[in-house]
Amino acid sequence: MKFDKHGILEMAKMNYDPTRPKAKNPIKIQDVSLRDGHQSIFATRGRTEDMIPVAKMMDDIGFYSIEMWGGATFDVMHRFLNEDPWERIKTLKKYMTKTPFSMLLRGQNVVGYRNYADDVVEAFVQRACDHGIDIFRVFDALNDFRNFQTVVKVIKKNKKHFQGTICYSLTEPRMGGKTYNLDYYLQKAKQLEELGADTICIKDMAGLIAPYDAYYLVKALKEQTDIPIHLHTHFTSGMGDLTLFKAIEAGVDIIDTCMAPYAYRTSHPAVEPLVISLLGTNRDSGLDINKLAEIDKEMEKVIPKYKHLLDDTKNAIIDTNVILHQTPGGMLSNLVNQLRQMDALDKLDEVYETLPRVRKQLGQVPLVTPTSQIIGIQTVNNVLFDKDGEEFSNITEQVKDLCFGLYGKTTLPIDEKVRKKALKGYPRGETPITKRPGDMLEPELPKIKKDFRGLAKNIDDEILCALYPVTGKRFLNWKYGHEDIPDDAKPKTLDNVQKEQELIQKALSGKLTTKKDKSANTRAFDVYVDGEHFNVEVADPNVRQMGIVVKKKEEIATGDNTGNLIAPIPGMIIEYKKKVGNKVKAGDTIVVLEAMKMFNNLGAPCDGVIKNIVRKAGDSVAKSDILCQIEPNK
Ligand code: CO
């Protein structure tokens, strides 16, 4: 039976039988549940122990590859899960011996948020190869492929697979316009071919690509090159499945999907409906739907551990803002958070309006980590601080670096007036560089080896510290038993989760015994009821005696003269710039706090003398936590 005049969908025998005839051009499927899936919907909190039960089953499916590392996993594992990121590759390899392993690599940013020196980048990629990564999906936030040079050398030397990636971006609702048009993508694909890419990936991290745009883009790429084309999109806007389907009709070679329990919302289309939709066609995946369903069943067992991480504030599982503004969903929610913290939510419409202009002035860059944060935060600054027609009155450090060329070449030139203003008095110089940013950076490993001597036991530890000096050090202290592992970094059992849920329910319904028993081991967590914040402490379920302490989080006055410097947002302390006894003036930077992957300098609330430093570098702090106390000048 034929029902498509292009001969795309020739129907053959229609059954679920895994021994059904092989399709002429089967779609190849990469599963991304174990990396982008849980990164997208569970804040990357997936633990290795919860992947092991399905690892062998997934290996038996016949996926083209399994993405299980890179992106945010390296950061989150050592920071929040007390897991050595390198170990995950080795552990999963034991159960998955047939399917190639794939990782997401941010070019010269590796798995961090800035450009690292070549020696760090080379060492990282070499060790990733040694541990068992087979396919490297390499991208750069600016699509400046000079930032690929160093990693590609090492990938090729190890005879591994280099997937050259183009970040998909838009300036209007559909592909086209002056910048991100078909020509742009075809040019970029040509550059990747010249770099020796084994496959080319269109990476649509925001779920922006519309079905017909995917169709025409894939068609045009297939005409231009013989290199296999891989499409990565997210469901965020609701177009994901439609887009994959049109791309498959256009001849895309490989697509990314998730197992159903990790699919949809800001994650990816699920594999199961696609397998059925293509059944019997000449793009039939050949995958066994019954085996997939068994994996789903096994995966569902651990989902209760992660469910609290799902954003369920809205009933809709799509984000229509993404369609309206052509910007990543995560970026928009960051903007909302930032405005809320500054008590300026009423400025949201103005931010949406200003964003395209700021982006254009800063070189019309694609919006992906870290450029989405850089553009977003600068837009908020412009909306809040610009007065009397003066633009860019408060320029962030990252925007200065971008203007200097430290991230690479922007898509369009940066507005000359803005660049001049940003680089006035910039310590590296007022004339921007045009060379590869990596050429600016001195080797970093010798200093790391010296600074972490004794603590870092091998090159893997050293690389971790090079990428994440503060949290890396903290993790190694846990790993080698120099410091106690905090409760919130320990894994939970399903039993723990169930008991906690019951206790929270009790707390919410007011049926609580208030018992201040500090002797029992307690676990604290935050509960929000109608906008009120409660800190609920629950005795460790393993301890026989059950006590619950609920206290309303104290309100701490901000901006008065009590001299308390408080955290305006939750985050992690990078460093204290002052010591006890130091004299400070209002506004002097006292603490550097990392939040939303950006460094925030927190200034003294008043003139005075530092009386007490309450926390230390590496501590995670909640909003409104006191960081430092200042004795105000009388
Ligand atoms: Co993604």
Explain the overall architecture.
- The chain has helices spanning 33-41, 48-59, 73-80, 85-95, 118-131, 149-157, 182-194, 211-224, 240-249, 271-277, 289-300, 320-325, 329-341, 348-361, 371-385, 397-404, 416-423, 445-451, 459-467, 469-479, 494-509, and strands spanning 28-31, 65-70, 101-105, 135-138, 161-167, 199-204, 229-233, 254-257, 522-529, 532-539, 548-552, 564-566, 571-576, 583-584, 589-595, 598-603, 608-613, 620-621, 626-632.
- With 634 residues, it is an alpha/beta fold.
- The relative contact order is 0.09.
- The protein has 21 helices and 19 strands.
- The strands form four sheets. It has an eight-stranded parallel barrel with strand order 1-2-3-4-5-6-7-8, surrounded by six helices. Strands 12-19-17-14 form a four-stranded antiparallel β-sheet, with no helix packed on it. A four-stranded antiparallel β-sheet has the order 16-15-13-18, with no helix packed on it.
- It has four domains: 23-309, Alpha-Beta Barrel (TIM Barrel); 327-440, Cyclin A, domain 1 (Orthogonal Bundle), CATH 1.10.472; 445-483, no CATH class; 544-632, RNA polymerase II/Efflux pump adaptor protein, barrel-sandwich hybrid domain (OB fold (Dihydrolipoamide Acetyltransferase, E2P), Beta Barrel).
- Cobalt (II) ion binds next to loops.
